[in-house]
Design a protein that fits this description.
Layout (H helix, E strand, L loop, with lengths): L8 H7 L3 H4 L4 H22 L6 H12 L4 E2 L3 H7 L3 H13 L3 E4 L15 E4 L2 H7 L5 H6 L11
Antiparallel strand pairs: 1-3, 2-3
Helix pairs in contact: 1-7, 3-4, 4-6
Length: 155
């Protein structure tokens, strides 16, 4: 916030931190940039890095993942919805984590002898991308979204 100022807080929250999205002259320009970024990222950038996941499958997964922002990750539901195995959706999540699009916050527990597997929480690194994938196009849409203001989420 020290860089953009408190007056731009709402715009920064909606558009995210990528400069072309944040600095776009209109909401439509920002939205178009985010749409093009996601498409280019999935169709060109990831294959160039040797990631061989179909762009359509990863886009569908990424869109589903946006609904888990700030929540505990459960691979079973997206796997069932996508018609793939749980290890496959975990691999998709690891791909998006590895390219810094999402962050997995692993649970912390002091007892290292516990063998209980705990699930991470999922956070999108850029709010503009998350909002685009959730279909949020304006500040009105953002404030009217069911998860806005949810105590467990930081949209």
């Amino acid at each position: 916030m020290s860089e953009v100022g408190s007056k731009a807080q709402a715009r920064h929250w909606l558009r995210g931190g990528f400069p072309p999205s944040f600095l776009a002259r209109t909401e439509a320009d920002s939205l178009a940039w985010r749409r093009n970024f996601i498409q280019t990222f999935l169709e060109r950038d990831l294959p160039q890095w040797g990631i061989g996941v179909p762009a359509a499958a990863l886009l569908r997964f990424w869109t589903m993942l946006a609904h888990y922002h700030g929540q505990i990750w459960n691979a079973a539901d997206p796997a069932r919805s996508l018609g793939v195995s749980e290890p496959t959706v975990r691999r998709y999540l690891d791909i998006l984590s590895g390219v810094f699009m999402v962050r997995q916050l692993l649970p912390w527990h002091a007892n290292l002898k516990k063998r209980q597997v705990k699930s991470p929480k999922i956070y999108f690194r850029d709010t503009g991308i998350a909002h685009h994938l959730l279909g949020i196009r304006s500040e009105k849409d953002l404030l009217g979204h069911p998860n806005a203001g949810h105590p467990g989420k930081a949209m």
